[in-house]
Batch of 2 targets.
Target 1
Amino acid sequence: MLSAADNKKLTRTGPDTPMGRTFRKYWMPALLSRELPHPDCPPVRLKLLGEEFVAFRDTLGKVGIVEPRCPHRGANLFFGRNEACGLRCIYHGWKFDRQGNCVDIPNATPEVASRLMPRASIQALTVEERGDVVWAFFGESAPPLPDFEYLGMPSEQRFVSKKFQQCNWAQAVEGGLDTSHFSYLHAGVYDGEKASLLDGGKRPTLRAANESPNHSRFRWLIEDGAPRFTVLEHDAGLLLCAARSADDDQTYWRMTQYLVPNHSLTPGNFPEDTSLMNTWVPYDDESCWIFCYAWHPDREISDDERTRYREGRGLFAEVDDDFVPVRRRENDYLIDRDMQRGTNYTGIANISEQDQAVADSQGTIADRTQETLLQTDLGITRFRATILNACQSVEEGVQPKGASDTSAFRVRSGDYVSEPHQSLVEVVHARFGEFAGKNIVFP
Amino acid sequence: MLSAADNKKLTRTGPDTPMGRTFRKYWMPALLSRELPHPDCPPVRLKLLGEEFVAFRDTLGKVGIVEPRCPHRGANLFFGRNEACGLRCIYHGWKFDRQGNCVDIPNATPEVASRLMPRASIQALTVEERGDVVWAFFGESAPPLPDFEYLGMPSEQRFVSKKFQQCNWAQAVEGGLDTSHFSYLHAGVYDGEKASLLDGGKRPTLRAANESPNHSRFRWLIEDGAPRFTVLEHDAGLLLCAARSADDDQTYWRMTQYLVPNHSLTPGNFPEDTSLMNTWVPYDDESCWIFCYAWHPDREISDDERTRYREGRGLFAEVDDDFVPVRRRENDYLIDRDMQRGTNYTGIANISEQDQAVADSQGTIADRTQETLLQTDLGITRFRATILNACQSVEEGVQPKGASDTSAFRVRSGDYVSEPHQSLVEVVHARFGEFAGKNIVFP
Amino acid sequence: MLSAADNKKLTRTGPDTPMGRTFRKYWMPALLSRELPHPDCPPVRLKLLGEEFVAFRDTLGKVGIVEPRCPHRGANLFFGRNEACGLRCIYHGWKFDRQGNCVDIPNATPEVASRLMPRASIQALTVEERGDVVWAFFGESAPPLPDFEYLGMPSEQRFVSKKFQQCNWAQAVEGGLDTSHFSYLHAGVYDGEKASLLDGGKRPTLRAANESPNHSRFRWLIEDGAPRFTVLEHDAGLLLCAARSADDDQTYWRMTQYLVPNHSLTPGNFPEDTSLMNTWVPYDDESCWIFCYAWHPDREISDDERTRYREGRGLFAEVDDDFVPVRRRENDYLIDRDMQRGTNYTGIANISEQDQAVADSQGTIADRTQETLLQTDLGITRFRATILNACQSVEEGVQPKGASDTSAFRVRSGDYVSEPHQSLVEVVHARFGEFAGKNIVFP
């Protein structure tokens, strides 16, 4: 539960807000590289943290992200002509390069133009393109990009996309960090449980939603719906460790990474599986882009896997040409009440869309002043404390957690089945080795 | 004409408003029974007096109307699974019964869950299902349902539906209480009157819109466009008596019932005819649901009549699957100007849609500070005074008119043709007997 | 650049604003005559300067523009029946003539009606229909209509239409007065210029967009992108003279008329060509109607020309049945980036739609507090000063510039090619003679 003031601080990221100033200390994924497919291709409208921009790939293939307003008479540069290493305003031909420099004022005399140009530059973000993503930094002196493992992969070993989420960034992050809901939101239900419906408040017999080689873990998710959480802090964020009873006195661990300010590496994978990461980027305070990255450190992502990701699987939603999910707020996620009765718990297809639905359902901006938090919500409360602390640092003029430490972001998430004698320290070391988190602190 | 303050008081029914507190002292129709067709069917979103709810029919067939917000993390229970006598949140499986009790918290230990559940109940309205309608009461100790005659009918003798109105509840009620507009809004026009159009301000020769066995009354409506009103008060509201000249020195009476706070029984029927009643329920302050009831105390409503009602006739509009009229604000009620010229006065098909159009046309919330009220508007002014008085009672902590007197609502409305020697007392007694209104007061 | 206060003053035209009071001192085109095609045709909804009206053509063919609210109970007269020289409210039959007089109150006794009618009139604008347009004046004592040349033409020699613009009136006017953008916004580009795209900030080789008998002038527009402006004041507004280098030491002049408060006569025509004029009428502060007039003083407008105007050419946009452009804000004006690369500078078809796009792109209401104005923007700054001065006059209770001087509006615009020895005085006299502008002042 947060005070109304803290809830506001957490959720508002416009330029004149504390969290907005905090986000602007970190690199943000701005768009997918493939949205600007070739040099001099059409410019693209962007909204990032509530601010409008226009992105373009110039003649040399470099991407610029600039404010959209021509300083001459305020025409919008989205309509500009992308030509000869710059964007030219259609109204009177003023031209700007990808760094925002004004490089031509053709409707003035050469003398006047020379005098004016240095004063007529426009705001441009610092841009770096890596891992199929155009990354942007709002401030002056950008630190190196975080050393996410996925960024080091060759393109054959990764798959990257994005999807639009119709609610505030923070509640979507909270859904991403919350592994406890796997026992419900993503569960299947037996057709057979209808028979026991009259049995008072009895829970339906949930079943594992997926058939898979690792089928047992889905059963463990269903059988233990109140996992025990331990949260470990490290230099780039938090490792959230959730323990569930497995078979034969073993423990099934699902371990999630939260990386400041808006990244998560999901659990659900054993070492042989593909890894998954998300970044939630505020579009404005009432919606966000979710960037989704899949990679495998040891092998290529197959064509079959790419096809399945495109059709909506795991973190990836089925999206339209604008990366807006086909199942969304306006159509109640195409909820199918028969499916909810007999097949899965929500009646909504795909894990991504189930996450989306429940996050949206908390409101456009969730009210955190009325909540009943449990031990299973420990990851949520620690996320809030961590990012509000970073925000406090920025307000005090101090560099916030992780903002300039690229190596701290080289972490992994994932699952583990431990023996009764193994401590959490042993579990984390056995599963992640050097990828647990820089300077991770055990209780 | 009302002051701006009284107009605001009349029209706002949210939880923190005087009229909102007043409405919450009375039973409200919340939805049609058939919107929740069978046990454990899909839940339905509701908005009542500006507040959001979710309605569901549980495994035993009982209806619950509860606030939609799960107290755990604020997910919306509309997406919940309707199972085993309760609605289960899709996020983490918290479950609530139809009285709003929390009956399961599966993501906590049993001990924690037992301790939390009593404090985790949600708001639930008192619900009673009768006469094909789910009735709701907002407060704690609900009085008995009003004894509307239609509620006592077997289902073969009644037909019930609803329609959405895109304006404030009060101006829609005022349309329902205003029988004087029948001489204009619902009139037909002769094709032949085109010939006299150049004749200055002369009125067109109106004709009766309907052909019927009682055709004379339609002629009287047209011939006497300024009826004389007498308003009689009784324990549940008002009997509005409008007198028009008929043939041979007879008087044609149309007598409407207004029942607090938002019901009306319409005139237009003789004893052998079907009776009609409306309830206007604020959805929010800019729209309302109009519940429509037809019944006959002595015979079944035929299949033909049901078909006609469904197609839009009398009080019943032609509606889509969401009960929104096909002819509505966005499409100017499919007004046909040729029809307006040669067939009926508005160019809009169906009486219900004509009422709708003119009420909407007064604005989303009508401004009553600029009006020119006539003697024919007496019913309107008495309606306003009556409900504002009830509102005043509530503000003073007194039970408002009719709120706990179920028998006072057992009234009838209808038409009568009186002889010159008959007084109004005789007319009312002759037409209604014991159904005129409890403790009705004659001037 | 304007202060925020002046920008607000310039752009707001509602009834309680300084500019709104100023506009209401002048005649406004309200709708096209053909929108009310015959006596007693369907009424039409209007919004003018942020105020709502209903327009109707009465039985005698005269047009009325009246407030839409019936003074009885506030029903909207748009739904009224247009009959026998008046509009009759559908609710209770009150009737109003085109001057707003209440001419019938049928739901009162004759005595009451007689007493009420004189007090029940509604607001009506002063209306004059001329030149295929219904002109309206808001105030009491209307001056004569301005003596626009087009108004004196027989209907065969003119073509009139309108189009909807989705931004504030003033920035649309500024686009209309700005002939300097012709060197960019309306330019074509050679396919061949792709070859030179890597050449830094070099301008693309623009080409003339149109092939025409006067082809040279299009080349001059491209070759001289920084015309020299001289602005001359006269009794109805401004003559904006823009000089560009032509061939053989000649000068190519494009001369635009601005007429208070919201008219423009465009350049681009030599004496043998068709003349063009625009009026920008605020619908509200975020959109406007642009009335477009073409005429030829000496010959008929041919069927071919009319067809081309209807399809979108010059000032005329391709519009739908509601006069809303097919290419508009919501669809990014159907911008075609391949066309922008290889055919024309914007990738948007038609000059009118190019103007529209760039004006809309300045925002719903352009922010003029951040601009970098050049000598080529002199016309813009003088327009602002002129209309703000008129506004100042009104605030001081003085009749504003041109408001009552009908003959001052009899002006022409157009192009001229001058010899080196010709002064501006000689140019203006040679081109316009008595049509330069009443009491025009040379520097």
Target 2
Amino acid sequence: MAGGVGSRFWPMSTPDMPKQFIDVLGCGRTLIQLAYDRFQGICQPENFWVVTSAKYGDLVKEQLPEIPDDHILLEPCRRNTAPCIAYVSWKIKAKNPRANIVVAPSDHIVMDNREFARVVLSALKFTADSDAIVTLGMKATRPETGYGYIEADLSMACPSNKEIYRVDSFREKPSLPTAQRYLQKKNYFWNAGIFVWNVSTIVNALRVYQPKIGEIFERMLPYFYTDKEQSMIDESFPQCENISIDYAIMEKADEIYVFPASFGWSDLGTWGSLHENMHRDAYDNLSVGPNIRLIDSRNCVVHALQEKKVVVQGLDGYLVAENNDMLLVCRLSEEQRIGEFTKED
Amino acid sequence: MAGGVGSRFWPMSTPDMPKQFIDVLGCGRTLIQLAYDRFQGICQPENFWVVTSAKYGDLVKEQLPEIPDDHILLEPCRRNTAPCIAYVSWKIKAKNPRANIVVAPSDHIVMDNREFARVVLSALKFTADSDAIVTLGMKATRPETGYGYIEADLSMACPSNKEIYRVDSFREKPSLPTAQRYLQKKNYFWNAGIFVWNVSTIVNALRVYQPKIGEIFERMLPYFYTDKEQSMIDESFPQCENISIDYAIMEKADEIYVFPASFGWSDLGTWGSLHENMHRDAYDNLSVGPNIRLIDSRNCVVHALQEKKVVVQGLDGYLVAENNDMLLVCRLSEEQRIGEFTKED
């Protein structure tokens, strides 16, 4: 899934070049490339599918030349994750009704790719032989209020995979006291938005719980893999309800499982999460860029990949981000206001 | 005089493009162009001379195409103001022994060009008929410790120009208590480094007080206006003592005069002086650039001429300056450390 606009990461991320297409970590690979790399040994290049906005199609082709062009699906408009997943699922099923699938966002980070591969392969083995909907649940390390949580029933491990448990409930982003309670309880996991299932399972679930979306893609079947596909999608996709897969399926279906895991995951939803997940200096500063010098500064994020030289002096708890001739300096504690800051008067 | 390197204005000003060649005020004209404009009605284009470093010769030609190419004198190395003034003075005298001259830095600002023209024309009239060395003394408006001061004898106005007074002494940059005393005394003026004299006066003064420099340019006489001038200058100029005109002449000569004036002058020596001299918003912020937004911020200077969009939030008393893919954020109170900040480790 590569259709996000990453507005909370301005100015690094902009609607023309959202964060999945940016080398956020300054490592030489963009987030979507890192997501692709993460599946080496799990999935052949010809079995990757990318669903993105029509405007990002060329970016995906450029950044992931290994993926067949016709595996890049272009949404004419944004409709959240359920229609996105439905599109690619119906299309894959038309070609391979026995396909086994991992759905993952393209703009997250994973620090431990080996553990990621182990978990994903184990989950795929599980869904190859069952109609389970499996979510990856991240073991919480702090009382995070920015994530949804998955409540697991740890008393019931699956017989065929002892690492997988039934889900009791999905919980929306909690308040801080609630998040603190979740952290203590040990059976609450962060919902990473990474799903494993076989293609029949998800198509059936969408048919049952989102029949309107199901009908739209059922009617698409004659047009998949033809010249008319894009024009038909452009016509019918906008008719889909704007709904996340969590609301559309997870909170409704019965047979939901969670695979608790710990592989250094972050959704990189905010500058603060980048600060938390990256290597910081002795003064808790994070710098990403070729030549950044911090003086008398603490707890700062300085992100300036294109700047030849950056000097920051005397700041505590600030974000300094420069990209593409746009510059933001703000308190990290105020970063939820970035959208407001950047709105034109 | 256009040979300065403007290191205190990093990153706007760099050794490759110092501040006299930059549109510091964001008005569409660089400081040297504004200095040129300031002399409209005082001096014909063919009577301008620019002394600069060899590396800036092309910049001067580009920015001041009106000036004859051979009036751009190129110093092979930096030797402060005395050798710079000596070079151009000997050269002008060789062509026109009766020339009447204003020497001015190219990187200062003047807010009231009309009053500037009145003062300069009045001083020129005075030096046309006398051997006086005239300095322009800026009426102090604050106890500035960053400028040298001129102590005038206000009891002795010149008979031929009642605005011009004898100088009692030149004073170096004072401490704050001393500057406060100067401000109260009314006969202390800021030394703006702007001088008016006829060419014989300054050449004679240099011969008397700086005989070694005098000899060097005396020996240059046969080569001025020939193909050999540059190579001879490249050889002999470095032999000049590195000395300012203030030390070389002003503090030694007897017949020094001051013309107290008030035309909104600043030497723009520091970001703070830009802050003081430019129009600020209701929160005492100065922004120079096409699209700068300040939120919850006070007493800041934001200078980003090339950035398409800048957002600054939550800063008080900071400088944010971006230029040519270089970025500086620092406390304005620490700006004297800019040189240290930018030094490579």
